[in-house]
Every structure is written in structure tokens, then in C-alpha cells.
Amino acid sequence: MVTHNLESTQSAQHGLSRAERLTDILSSAARVDLDGRDLVLDYVHALQAEGVAVLPLRAGEKLPATPNGVHGATTDPATFDAMYSTGCNLGMNLGASGIVVVDADTPAEVEDWQEWQKEHATSMPRATVATPGTAGVHHGGGHWWIDAENAGELKESKAGAATVMTGDRYVVLPGSVRTDVADPNQPAYVVQGAVYSSVQGSAVIEAARRVDKPETKTTREPNSTPVTSIDQWAQETEWEQLLIPDDWINTGDSDSCGCDIYTAPGTHANPKSATAHTGQCELSNNGGALAVWTDNPPQKLMDVIEDKGKRVSKFDYVTYMHHDGDTSAAFEALGLDYSTGGQALSAAELRGSGTSREATQPRGKVDLSVILADDYTPPTPTLWTRTDGENLLYPGRSHSVHGESESGKSLLMQALAAKLITDGQRVLYLDYEDTALSVIGRLRAMGTPDEATLSMLDYWNPEPAGGNCVEPEGLDYMAGQSYGLVVIDGVTTALSDAGLNSNDGDDVVQWFGKVVNYLATSTGAAVVVVDHVVKNGTGGRFAVGSNQKMGQLTGAAYTVDVLTPPAQGKVGTLEVYIGKDKGGGVRKFAETPNQHRQARVATVTVDGTGGGLSVTVDPPHEDTKRAKQATATDGAVSRVDLYLTGLGDEKRPSLHEIVYAIVATYDDGDGLPEARLKNLWKELSPRTTGGAKRFTTALNRAKDKGLIARKKRGSRAWVAAPGADISAPARALVEHIKLDAEKDAIEALE
After folding, report:
1. How does DSSP assign 416-468, residue by residue?
2. Structural domain that includes position 734
3. Exposure winner among 302, 381, 574, 665, fewest CB in 10 A?
4. DSSP code of 295?
5. Do residues 590 and 600 make contact, with C-beta atoms less than 8 angstroms apart?
6. Which residues lie across from 89 on neighbouring strands?
7. Do residues 126 and 270 both lie within one domain?
8. Bridge-partner residues for 92, per DSSP?
9. Residues 656 and 740 in one domain
10. Which long-range contacts (CB under 8 A, 24 or more apart) does 306-311 make?
């Protein structure tokens, strides 16, 4: 094996074409299973010096070892070195590398590809890389590499039976080995021929340049099913947009129909977990179906598979993966009007006029020299400080703090504002949900001097329908100031007042660009939008409305969860979870993420005793009271589940009475938050309750029958109705839960 020295290699190769230089590098490719780490990295670095974007693949496989799949490929040696584990295979992102690969998997495909060459006056006789093939499937094939660095935008096409691969696809690099090969004695990808120049491969490049993406079907043949709004959305949405954010990995392979093959999240012996059929595929229905092959898909996907089978539509995927099977919540999140039979509202209808929305400001070219400079400092959070000195907000970036009604999310930002004002920093507060009188009252309770508030706080109650927040003079004034913190409290109202729809992704992108991120970059402040969470009780990462609310953030996103409700004269406890961290400076000190990819990052104590109000932000902790409550609750629910499942159907309370029993026993006097109620429900056996999908029905029936009621109007906390008319089994259940809770409380004290 020859070690690549970049300086000597480049000097010796002066005057050679890129194709010739790549041929030379490949001719001495390192074997990942035989050569040491240093030799493998020398080989990779030589490729990267020629602009080849390399990614690590799992050892013995062709599946990416990077969390973001093919997008993890890099031309930076240090970045690759940090990702690479000794023995892993190597892959190349074709589009990022400026390489086109003709892929013929079998002798028949090779023969057809050679016939195609004759028809197009092309001569590329030997494959650049001989592929080992897989047992029982592909064998006798190869990859023909073509240097297409200056070819412009290309699209995947066919050259006879062979596939012309480009764009966001990857191939396995020579020197890699497979464990599932047709011949165990020949497990490696072996260099066989040269890398072809763009001139030699001009016919292939031209074919890839001419191919057009099939038009999206928007009409049906006569007598076929009309296109509905769901169908239209499905046609306009690529599977990649749904699967990649949920940690599915595009394997880079296509099924026999030409559609992409994906690997589900987690570890799988077979990388073929599902085929994502497009709307044009003959094997698909309207908009494309996900054909699931694995027996171990994500748990939430199991619900729809059990209900409807292993061919999953895009709408069902979103409904079950992100809304627990709640179709109305999915309609709301996707911006479809459920009340009008599922017909999407037009932009004109959303605004009440026929005008189209104004395009957002195009993004400009970034000066990369600033980021690449030796003295460049990555973004660092400096505000919203915990008691251990760690910070949660980035200056000059946008953030979201969202939670249920009365979760204390606005109070947290007002507490931060009070601290900054007292410390002599200016704060801008755009309030769509409250009044100046209420906010000033809280600032005073937190000890903020009136003179400091008067000089340091810019407080706005923006006018509706394009009022002073959206008009140029208002924004221009704000953008010309220097603030430490900007709070926009009430996102849904802010969008509505601006004539925009919080469920419309384009509207959200426009508003974030022109208001939120504009203020962050122009004022240098940490900008925080205060928002509500989705109304499905799942505790997910997202604020209500379009997921673009998460996508447009440049800083971090936080969810506030209530452990003990804050109130005057009481001590409340809140927990803060991080769901997104674009700067990367917060997650490193957060806890391990939960099933919603949220990580607990702070425990907040709100002390309303003594006539004042203090807010303390600590690192996540388990105080004594919470530990006892958790122990009592978990133990009680576990034994209650055993109790219920042991009863016959005739002795078991109805589902709405089970909801009542939970509220009646776990409400501590301030109401049981709906999210916690649902979590307790989900801890019970689905055989007893029907699972999470039956919760909303049971909750509404308990409310309609007068068994439970909201703590107060608009509250998300529930209380049991005094003297409720319940059955004997329900009364027995209440007593059973109380006895178990008392036992656990005594055990916790001991």
C-alpha cells in the first residue's frame, strides 16, 4: 500500500486532469479491513483534496454510519477523521463530489450498458470499480466513474438497463468490503479501470442533463376518484421531507420500480426497511405510499400498520407518527380545513383578498472566510443563565419557548426581562396576549425598579391587521435599536394580526424572515417567540401550527412543562426541555433526550410567597417532593393497571369513568394538567383503555357527562365534579387508587 502525501502527489501530478489524478489515487486504495487507520485516512484525504465528499459507512455494509445519511459526507479531513471508526466502509456523495457513476449490477445490465455506449458513440469499456455483488441478488456488476465537476445540475437517468447516478446519492468507495457478498473470497470493491473524463462521458452527462422530473399529476382520468386536498398535499410532498427528519436513512439504492429504499430508525439486519413510492410509480396510490418491509418499524407506525396494513399513505404517516392517530390534529398542523371536507384554503381565502403573498427576501451569498478564520468563535449562548453558570439563549438568534396555557412560559421571559432591565440592558417586549398593567405588576413583584423599567423597556401592544409591529416604520425603529432581549408573546395572534396563517408554512417563513430573524440580526438580541404547543397532549417538540415555526429558528426551541403550577402565595415548579439547538451550545449540558427527542435542560422554581415573586433557573434536578410524587404515581398506576386488567368486562368501569377516577385521585387541588392526565392514561394497559387513541373520546365523554370540568375557563387543567354520579366499579377504582397512593407515600417517607 502506498501512503499518499498530498504535497508530493499534487506536485508530481501537475498538469494531469482531475480524472487522471483520481485514477492515480484509486489505484492505491487502502483496504479498510486490512490496512491501518492511518493508511485509510491518507487515502480519504487524498480523495478529499480532489473535492470528493466522503462519508463513513457501517463496517461490512453499505449503510451510512452518519446520523444524517448521505448528507454527512464531507471534504474536510478533520471532520471526517472525527466521524470515522476503524474498519468502517467508505462512501462518496456523488453530487457533492462532482462525479457521475453509471451503475450496472448484473452481467445482463453490463451488456445492455455496453450496447447503449455503441449507440451513443461512447467508449468506456472497463468499469472503474468492480462491485462484489450480494448473495442471490446482484453480481458481476460495476461502477463507471465520470468526472462531472463542471457539468452543472444533473438528474438521475438511465443508460440502457444501467442507472446513471448523481445528486444526493452515494456509492461505496473501493477498498470497502461487504459481509453479504456473492463470493466470500472476493468481498472488496476493487479498482478495475480508469476514471473517465467529462469528454469521454459526454453522452452520459448529456443524458443526465436532459432528463426531466416527471410532472406531478394534478388531474385524474375520467370516472376516477377526484383529487382532494390531502391528495394535492401528498403529490406536493416528497417522502424525503417526512422520513429524513424522523431519522430514516436513504440507503442510496432503488427498488425494482425505481423508488428509493429507506432504513428505519434503529438497528436493522436488513437495510431495506421500506420502499418510498412516488406518486408516479405504478405500484403506488395517489401521492405515493410507503411500502413497509421491516417487522420492526417505529412503534407509532405500528398503530397504522395494525389498522390499515403495511402500505402507508403520507397523510397516515404524519397522522400516526406526529399526532397519535388524531386526524383532526393532522389536518390542523398541515393547514387543511377539516370543517370544509378537507379542501385546502387558498392564499386569497386566508387573507380575505385576492392578493398573493409577497415573496420573502432572498438569502445572499455567505462570506465563508469569516467562519474559516482561525479566530472564528462559534455561536455561544450567553443569556437565560442557570445557577451553575450555563446559558440557554444565543444573542443575535431566534428562539421559541412554548407550552400549554398557564404553563408559565410568558412568566419565564418576563423574569429574564426583569433581570436584564435591572442590570441595565434594554428589552423589547411585543405583547399580543396581555396588557402593560399586568406585565408591569409582575416586574414590580420581581423587584424591578420603576425607573429602570421606564428607561430600559420598550413595550408594544401591536395593533391588529398590519399594525405598528408590521408596518415599516415600526420595524425600522425596532431594528435600529440595540437590545439584549426581544420577546414576541403570542405567535398565533401576531401572525393573524399580520394577515397570515400560523398553519401555512409559507406564511410562517415570511413572518419569521421579515420580523423575527430580522430583529435578531439587526438588533443583536436573543429573540424569543412565546407560543402554545400542539393540542394533542403528546408533549412533542413542536409549537402549534406549521412545523416551519421550528424550521425557521436560528437558535434553540424550548418546551415548558408544569410540575407544580405557579400561583400567588405558592411555590411552583416548571421543567424546561430543549427540542432543537441549531447553535449546538446547549444540548451538551442537557439530559439524555426522551422519545420526542427533547432533553430536560432546566428546573425552574417560581416562588410566589412573601408578597413578591422570584424565579430561579437550576440545572435539571429531582427534588424530594417530586421524587415522592413520582414514586407514588408510578407505583399506584402500575398496580391499578394490574387491578383493572384482572377485572372482568362486567366489573370494569367505563372508559370515561376511568378518566374521572384518575382526575379525582391525582388532582392536588390546582387541577390535573391534561398532558399529565394523558400520560397517566397511557401507562394503563391498552387492553383495558384502548390505548392513546381512545383518550380524547373518553375525556370528552367524561366532560359531557359532568364528571370532570376545566379548572377555569381556558385552562388545560381538569378537576373532578363534586358528587359525580358514577357506577360502583368506578367508586371502587377511586378507592383502590387512593389506597395505593397512600401506601407509596408512606413508603417514600420511610
Report:
1. HHHHHHHTT--EEEEESSS-HHHHHHHHHHTT--HHHHHHHEEEE-PPTTT-T
2. 639-748
3. 302
4. S
5. yes
6. 57
7. no
8. 54, 171
9. yes
10. 311/285
CA distance 25 to 16: 12
- Coil, strand or helix: which one is 534? coil
The answer to whether the beta carbons of residues 695 and 718 sit under 8 Å apart is no
Residue 377 in any domain: the answer is no
335: cell is 393547514
Do both 83 and 204 map to the same domain? yes
Query: How far is residue 170's CA from residue 173's CA, in Å, rounded to a whole number?
Result: 9
Three cell numbers written together for 358? 409577497
Residue 305 Cα distances to 271, 297, 312, 501, 723, angstroms = 19, 9, 7, 33, 43
Q: Residue 28 and residue 19: Cα distance in Å, rounded? A: 15
618 to each of 139, 300, 403, 681, how far by Cα in Å? 60, 33, 19, 30
Query: How many helices and strands (H and E) does the chain possess?
Result: 28, 28
Q: Judge if 544 and 429 occupy the same domain.
A: yes
SS3 per-residue string spanning 581-625: ECCCCCHHHCCCCCCCCCEEEEEEEEECCCCCCEEEEECCCCCHH
Q: What is the pLDDT of residue 744?
A: 46
The CATH number of whichever domain residue 448 belongs to comes to: 3.40.50.300
Q: How many CB atoms lie within 10 A of CB 445?
A: 16
Together in a domain, 132 and 28: yes
Based on C-alpha coordinates, what's the Rg of the chain? 30
Check whether residue 625 and residue 655 sit in a common domain: no
Distances (CA, A) of 630 to 465, 515, 641, 744: 47, 42, 16, 10
Choose one of 210, 242, 271: the last residue of a domain. 210
Residues 408 and 324 placed together within one structural domain of the fold: no
- C-alpha grid cell for residue 174? 473501493
3-state helix, strand, coil in the chain (%, to 5): 40, 20, 45
Tens digits of residue pLDDT in 380-408: 899 999 888 899 999 999 999 988 877 88
142 vs 131: CA distance, rounded Å:
5
- The grid cell for 53 is 465528499
pLDDT given at position 211: 53
In a domain, 563, yes or no: yes
569 and 496 in one domain? yes
Domain stop point among 267, 302, 334: 334
Tell me the residue type at 560.
V
- For 61, phi then psi, to 5°, come to -130, 180
Rounded CA-CA distance 670/685 in Å is 27
Report how far apart the first and last C-alpha atoms of the chain are (Å, whole number).
Answer: 68
Q: What is the CATH number of the domain that holds 661?
A: 1.10.10
Specify the length of the chain in residues.
750
Distance CA 471, CA 357 (A): 15
Q: Which residues of the chain have pLDDT under 50?
A: 1-12, 135-137, 212-228, 285-286, 337-362, 465-470, 472, 535-541, 623-635, 742, 744-750
Q: How confident is the model at residue 284, as a pLDDT? A: 52
Residue 352 resides in a domain: no
Q: Report the predicted TM-score, pTM, of the whole model to 2 decimal places.
A: 0.41
Distance CA 146, CA 153 (A): 14
What is the grid cell recorded at 93? 456523495
Q: How many domains does the chain have?
A: 4
Closest alpha carbon to 117 in 75, 74, 82, 146 = 146
Closest CA to 720 of 628, 678, 658, 655: 658
